Amino acid sequence: MTSRYKPELLKFMSYKDGVEYNSDHAFTMEELLAITPEHVCHWMNELAYGSPVPSDDMRPVHRRDATLEFSKKAISSFMPRINASWDPVTAHGNPTRSDAVNKLIKRVKKFEVRREGVEPKARRSLEFDEFLNSLSLVRSKWGKGETAYMVSSVLTLQWHIMARIDDMMKLQFANFVPNRQYPSTLLCQMRWSKNIHEERDAPEQIVLGSMDPKMCALLNLAVYIETSTNVSNSEFIYGHPKDGNRVVRRFLGDIITNTAFKNMKTGKLGTHSFRKGAATYASRCGMSKDFVNRRGRWRTRKGVVDVYIDNTQPYPDACTAAALAGPLGPCFYVRKHGIDCVSPTLLVDQIAPTIKQVMGEAVATTLAMPLLWAAIEPSDNYTYELIPDRLKQKIIGAYVNSGGSESLNPIDRIVQQTLIVEELLLVAAQEEKVLAESLLLFTRSMQPYSV
C-alpha cells in the first residue's frame, strides 16, 4: 500500500515546499509533523479549483471528491500521529483528520451533486434489457472465432456472481467444485478480489442454471470450454488474465458502439456496468441490501460470530443467485427417468471431455447436462443458436451412438425454486427468523414464467 500512496505524498510535499522531490526521497519525522490542515487544504484546493484559495464563484472543475479522498488517505498513511484527530488548540494530531479538510471535501461533493463539478467518469449501471441485448449481439458473432464464446461465458458468469472484470480474468479451474447437495449446480470461490482480506470474505457461492439459455452461466461456460482449442494450456479459465482482460474490453466496446445496441439511459457503459447492473437488478427483484452484499462479496462489519461459523451463507446467496438467473427463473438440469443410455461415461468422456480434463469428472458431469439438453432441444423453440452447430452435431452423434433418439430430449429443466429455494426459505425461517413479509416478497418476485 505504501508504494501506491508514496507518489501522492511526493506530489503534495513538492507543492508545499516548492521543491521537486525524487521518488526515493525519505521525509523526516520533523518534516511530516510540520504539516498542517492549511497545507492540505491549499493542496486540495489547487487540485480541485486550480487555486490554493478559490473565490466564491469558482467551481471544482478539475478534480472530483473521490480524488481528494484518495489524496487525504495517502497523506494520512504517512502521518506520525495517524489515529489522532487534529487539535486546533495544541496544533497536534493528524492534519488530514481535521474539520477544515473534511468540510472542503464535502463542499466539492455538493458541487458534484449539483452538476457544477467535474463530469463523472464512472460507468453507469447496465439495465437488464441492455444486458439481454448485449448477450444477443455477442451470440450473433458465434461461429466467427472463439472469442465470442469466451465473452458469452464471461458476461453471463460476471452477471451471475456480481464480479469485477479483473476478478473474472483471474478465475481458475480449481475455483469451481461440484455441489454435493445440489448436483445440478456448482460452487465457486473467489479469493483474489481487492476487498478480500480474510477467509470470511471468500465464501463458496452457488452457480445456478437459468431457464433463459442466453443467461445460463452453466451452459455458456460449458460451451466456451468445449469449443476452445487452447483452454487446457493454462490454469486460468479465460487464458492469461491480462490478455483476456484486453480481449473482453475490446469486444465489449465493439458491442456497445454497435448500432444494434439500444441504450436505455444516458451515461457511459463499461465492463463494471455489469457488476453494477447485477446488483441493481437483484435489488429490484426484492433482494435485501444484505443479500446483495453477500453475493457481491462487499465487505461487511466483522463480528465475533464470523470467527466460529462457516463463512458460506447459503440462504441469501442462493436467493440472490436465483434472482440473477432472470425473470424466467433458475433451473436444475436433470436426467429423465427411464433413459439409461445417458451414462456417466457418455457425459464426461464424449459430451464434455475437455471439461473433464481441466476441471475433473464431477464438474464435467454437471456441465455436460446443459450441453446435452441444448444439443437435443429443437432449434425451432428459440430464435437464436443454443450451442455452436459443430459442437451440437458432435454431441448428437455421441448420444445416438449410445442408443438415444434425437426425437426425445433426455434432459429436463426443472424450475429450481421448487427444489432448492423453498428448502432454503424453510431453513431460513427456522434458523434466521426471516419475516413472513420477506418470504412472501421473494416468492412473488420469483414466480416462474413459461417458456
Automatic annotation (TrEMBL):
One of its GO terms (biological process) is DNA integration. Keywords: DNA recombination. InterPro entries: DNA_brk_join_enz (IPR011010), Integrase-like_cat_sf (IPR013762), Phage_Integrase-like_Recomb (IPR052925). One of its GO terms (molecular function) is DNA binding. It comes from the Eukaryota. The keyword Transferase does not apply. PANTHER family: P CELL-TYPE AGGLUTINATION PROTEIN MAP4-LIKE-RELATED, PHAGE_INTEGRASE DOMAIN-CONTAINING PROTEIN. This is Tyr recombinase domain-containing protein.
